[in-house]
Task: structure prediction
Amino acid sequence: MNEGTIEVQKIYQGGQPSGGLQDRFEEQIINLFSATEESSAETELQTRIDLITKSFLEAKQISRDVDLESVVEKFADSKLPLFPTDIDSYIEDLATNVVADSIHVSSPRFIGHMTSSLPYFFQPLGKLMTAMNQNVVKVETAKAFSPYERQALAMMHRLIYGFGDDFYTQHTQNSESTLGMMVTGGTLANITAMWCYRNALLGAKDDFGGVENEGLAAALNFYGYQGAVIIGSSLMHYSFEKAAGLLGIGDRNLIKIPTDQNHRLNLAALRETITECRQRNLLIIALVGIAGTTDSGAIDPLLEMSAIAQEYNINFHVDAAWGGAVLFSEQNQHKLAGIELADSVTIDGHKQLYLPMGLGMVILRNPHLAKYIEKTARYTVRKESPDLGKRSLEGSRPGMSLFLQAALNIIGHKGYEFLIDSGIKKAQYLANEINRKPEFELLFKPEINILLYRYIPEPFRQKTAQGKLTTSDNQAINDFNELLQNAQRQAGNTFVSRTTLENTAYGAGVPIVALRVVLANPLTTEADIDAVLNDQIKTAAKLPVITFNEEVNDDNL
Ligand SMILES: *Cc1c(COP(=O)(O)O)cnc(C)c1O
Result:
């Protein structure tokens, strides 16, 4: 316990705060808010935080070799602190118990997830944003941040749709128009798009008030539908399950079309499904195409899907949360051909735009679509106002457009092109290395910068090369790869993630455990990639050798 705490506790001894001390206590609390004066305490705090940040960002390890259970134990106490804790001891506790056991996602050898290092300028800008504390829900608490956000969204709209200058002159700052909505991530972007479509399809008509007003059962009944569905591939992100649940459609009615071995939606099956839905009188809320699946980065046949959507008059949404930034690349943007025909597109800022966590967006082809989700409140978000909160799922929101604007300006289109192209090149490098090494098997030739492969234990290498693995061989290899990924993560020197594939060259219905690499960190070099593979080879050598049907025991580790 520190001096400050002891002093405050004295004030309350016997439940009776004493006069002079009570005043000092209150002053101490008020002073927490008046940081404009340059105080030495504030400078000291900043210096301390800078040191913690620096050592965090420079750490070579990805994590400490500590069990999650022992980390959890540190946070078992749920008593709310009664007396103020002195800042220094709070920061000390934070550094030793939280920061020390966080994950160094910016490490060049952390190549298993969609989260990587950030440009340095976000740290000072984040400080500015926190200090300004704008709330973009309404102009009265944000002012410049409202048009600033609209401008950033219009830039992203141009990137996708590239309409003429007249279009942008007319809509960018017109409060009747919505070129997109900024949200906290891809999940909310996808949900927002589905919400718009549901409401547009089941809107007010004659004496019916619309789905938003009267509910889904009444709407389906009024329009004569037996139910409503969302259609996409089996690799759709699970945010669509949330959308189906929230919108009252039921996540069972999220129809998942099988994919081919390249992880792309099967078009013949799509046509059959649409026909069946029509026969069964089910309303199709939207068709979803994926531009960069979370698992493998595969891209659906967007051009063909958009043609089918047009033919059947179905809303077409593209989930480009991961892959959208490939549009920056002249050399690679053709992979996303057809995205410009989508009615809406999800893009995550905190993925390949390299923005801090908490920024996603949905971009809308039709600037008036968002009217279907418009809500106003007399006391704050008024009907005629340019308030962004009028057409948004969230209420109070920070001025995240600062981050998007900063990056679009400071990195620029050409800067992003370079980042995207180098990630794709690194994935090709890794694919070549895997193909060269007998220890590994490539499971998915990277379409962009995500790659799937696995380790093949020695006894299975010959059979793998000859294409003679049996289902039980694959089971044994699966078990081994699970052990390998766990051991690698626990040791914390390098990191890749893990997934299970349902449809590979080994056939549909033979689950294959895959190691998953995401090459997005600009700081990752070919030497880092080599280090990750070598770490796996070294780690694998220490794991129990598996033979046929032998149960692998986690205790052996
Ligand atoms: C990451 C991702 C999402 C979800 O985005 P969050 O930002 O995690 O909410 C949705 N779709 C795809 C394809 C993604 O990669």
About this structure: The chain has 19 helices and eleven strands. The pocket of pyridoxal-5'-phosphate is lined by residues 185-187, 190, 237, 239, 290, 292, 294, 319, 321-322, 348, 360 (CB under 6 Å). Residues 412-436 form the longest helix (25 residues).
